[in-house]
Amino acid sequence: MTLSVQSDIPFLTELRHDLHAHPELRFEENRTAALVASRLRTLGYAPHTGIAGTGVVATLDTGLSGPAIMLRADMDALPVRETGTASWISRNEGVMHACGHDGHTVMLLGAAESLAAQPPERGIVHFVFQPAEEGGAGAKVMIEDGLFERFPTQFCFGLHNWPGLEAGRLGVRTGPIMAGGWRFRIVITGKGSHAAQPHLGTDPLTIGAALVQEAQLLVARRTDPMVAAVVSFCIFEAGTTDNILPQTATLAGTLRALDPQVLNDLKAGLARLCSGLAEAHGAAISVDFHQPYPVTVNAPDATDLARAAMLRLMEEEGGPVPELDIVPSLASEDFGFMLERKVGAYAMIGNGDSARLHAPDYDFDDAIIPRGVRYWHTLARNCATAL
Length: 387
Ligand SMILES: [Zn+2]
Ligand SMILES: [Zn+2]
Fold this sequence. Notes:
Aminopeptidase, seven-stranded mixed beta sheet, hydrolase, Bact_exopeptidase_dim_dom, 35% helix, alpha/beta, 2 domains, Amidohydrolase, six-stranded mixed beta sheet, 26% strand
């Protein structure tokens, strides 16, 4: 049987531009959620709204007993000032769809449309439109808000666009695909002094500089070179003028690894480094670890379902050969919270030679919308027969 996918691509493209022009930050996706729910109602669904604040879930129940699966898209934007030139650039100053969640949202709406027209043979499909993927752990908040109790499911699937991967090329892998992470904030309290009399104070700035350097050795010298890990300091704030050594310095950043044990080791190592430097220099150093994201780990059987869908798509309509063992990323994803509880697979779809995710000149490639819709469509229909 050939795939016939019925979804209104021009509508989805226009909606994508509309969402892009009106981006909303985490947990503030009110307009977006309203548009999603309205479209779902038009398609004949009875969406549940207000889950984790702005989350929306719609269910397609074939009425025949079979597997229940969950397909998830994220809806939130980022605090980035857009520099692109498209006519649909952000009208919301300082907020931007810099991660392509506008594209994810419409691809899943397209799947809800095509699967309503051509449903799986049996079973249930839940379409999940999630808030606050960017640093808000929206997936976790949806779970805490009863997602899996209200919408019982066996398998969860996610899809993210990926700049640098050929446009429309799909990719997946078994095991860790996105990193686990911790954010940290470090405050070094020394003793302010005259810039010309450093010995009379305790300079938090030089201690902070040493900390940034030393922390790199947690990766270079404390982590197996065959294992992926990264320590990034992203904020270093200290001082008021150029002839005073400041009293305090604040540093913040993130730790990432594909193995939870490695991540714990990095965390313990950074804490040890802070207390060691405090002791060595007579300063006080506090370190606060927050926002833990788990490693996103694809289960073998769910990954095989994703692979089968990708291969079938290629057979049916050609296009780029899927990457069935794609290189993982040290970016992190709150979909990991879903995969901690449910078997599933997180996949990638190439966004071509675009600017990188979170860059101010990034844009989602409209040309990949049909491919994303068909991936979801094929996956859902395959699950009904394969499980
Ligand atoms: Zn994203
Ligand atoms: Zn992102």
